Amino acid sequence: MSRSALLESTFLVGKTEFLGFPVRPISILSLELCRRMGLQLLGGVERWRGLEVKQRTEQLALFLWAHNAPWAEVIESVRDGTWLESFDCSFEPAPSMVDLFEGELVQFNRLVDAASFEVRLRKGFEADKSVPQDLAPTCWISELVDEIAARYHWSEEFILCELPFVRAVIYHHHCVADRREIWTVTPAAPVAQQMAGMGAVAEALRAADDVETM
């Protein structure tokens, strides 16, 4: 399937259940919460395949809890480090469910790969070498939310909690693609590096802002 076809497929009606379990979409917030619980959805396919069957079963149960339980419960449990006490550890998905979840991970990463981009300054907009090298780092999540909210006027809660992550990346691309000082190009890095890549995009955009204001 072409990159364009993959991106278009993300705008089909998203799943509201997985194997009979009602679930929320993988969003910016749920992706970060899962990362903090050791469930690496982005770039985590090979790691997932290297886990023991019991570990994969536990991670699937954790994923279902993180995308089904009330947001307040999930957020508070992750913040306090008590999520292992909060979700139903007795739930044991069938092996077929574990295999299907691997397929979901593969598809999710394919979509993120297709949506991801890097930023390059156009000729004539070279970065100012006098910019301090010790600038305070920015948070890629806040950059993403800020760009999308400024253009589409959606609430922070909607962008973080309800907007599917892949669509958020696509909308973010549209937010920055028409800026005259940059090109947006296909990233060379594999999907496993895209979380770090988001931070790199944020830094590159900030560098472009510095150039534009000179």
Uncertain runs are none
* Overall pLDDT level: 79
Name the strands of the widest sheet in spatial order: 1-2
Strand count, sense and barrel status of the largest sheet are: 2 strands, antiparallel
Shape: globular
Query: Termini, distance in Å?
Result: 43 Å
Structural class: mainly alpha
Percent of residues in helices comes to: 55-70%
Protein described:
The protein is mainly α. The chain folds into two domains: 14-114, no CATH class; 116-212, no CATH class. The protein has eleven helices and four strands, in the order αββααααααβαααβα. It has helices at residues 3-9, 28-36, 45-49, 53-66, 71-80, 83-86, 95-115, 140-152, 156-162, 165-177, 194-212, and strands at residues 17-18, 21-22, 118-121, 182-185. A two-stranded antiparallel sheet has the order 1-2. The protein has a two-stranded antiparallel sheet with strand order 3-4. The chain is globular. It starts with a helix and ends with a helix.
Features:
214 residues; globular; mainly alpha; 2 domains; 6% strand; two-stranded antiparallel sheet; 11 helices
What is this entry, summarized?
With 214 residues, the chain is mainly alpha-helical. It has eleven helices and four strands, in the order αββααααααβαααβα. It folds into two domains: 101 residues, no CATH class; 97 residues, no CATH class.
